[in-house]
Amino acid sequence: KATAILESILEGLCSIYLLESPTRRANADKNLEDALAIRHWSATVDKKTWQPQWHVPSQEDIDKAAELFRDFVLPQLQALSTPQDMDKKEMMHHILLIRNAVLGASASLPFFDGPNYGLEESPSLEAIEHPVARPTNAPILTLNGRNVRDIVLESMKSLLDYLFEHCEDDVKSIQQVVVLLNTLASCRGLNSELFVTSVLSYRTTKAILSDQIAGNRGNIEMLSEEYTLLMHKVLL
Questions:
Q1: 219: which DSSP letter?
Q2: Which residues form the Proteasome activator Blm10 middle HEAT repeats region domain (predicted)?
Q3: Contact 27, 40 (CB under 8 A)
């Protein structure tokens, strides 16, 4: 789907993630006589000298992401500002595209402007630190100097007012707006569904590459990469 493609592109531009091993990438371009994949099965690395390479969004990446937002997301927001003559299917498409775009770029989207209100005084909550695995000098994504989350929030508030007043039976659209609001308020590069997928991927890789009989005699490169990336996502 187009929305999933847009989300994937924005995630690649705006997120921090491990790059594929240069050696493995170079071998993938060789013929089978020079580089047979099975020879590198469960290849190990020395953790003391292992230096994984990371993708950190550059200003060029953020500029491209902002261009995608201007070309594909802002028109959807403008269309939703006048939903009177819009059918349910069209409205749903607009909302889903906006949500996927926000989810894909969320790692580089600053949180809402304004003061923070903590809930530490609540008897059911404890003071918990929320570290963010992101360099302080990494560029952020804005649109003409405005906070993207604030722009989308304003649009969704107006849309909800319209839906509650004129289309209160359009449960699907209202539900998707609520999901989008949850994404705006809680997502900074990863949501619960994607985290579960990452955990399952790590467990699958571990089951495939590990030797259940002889045990692990070294640090498997692909397994180390997935574990490191998983720990990075925990801190998002």
A1: E
A2: 4-106
A3: yes
For the stretch 1-22, pLDDT in tens is 788 999 999 999 999 888 877 6
pLDDT tens figures, 150-173: 999 999 999 999 999 998 888 999
- pTM for the full model? 0.80
- Residue 54 pairs in a beta bridge with 18
Q: If you write DSSP's letter for every residue of the chain in order, what string do you get?
A: -HHHHHHHHHHHHH--EEPPPHHHHHHHTS-TTT--GGGGTT-EE-TTT----EE---HHHHHHHHHHIIIIIHHHHHHHTS-TT--HHHHHHHHHHHHHHHHHHGGG----SS-----TTSTT---------S-TTS---EETTEEHHHHHHHHHHHHHHHHHHH-TT-HHHHHHHHHHHHHHHH-SS--HHHHHHHHHHHHHHHHHHS-TTT---SEEHHHHHHHHHHHHHHT-
Tokens of 13: 């531009």
192-209 vs 221-234: helix crossing angle, rounded to 10: 160
Give dist(CA 221, CA 226) in Å, integer.
9
Note whether 113 and 150 are within 8 A (CB).
yes
Map out the domains of the chain as residue ranges: 1-32+52-110+135-189, 190-235
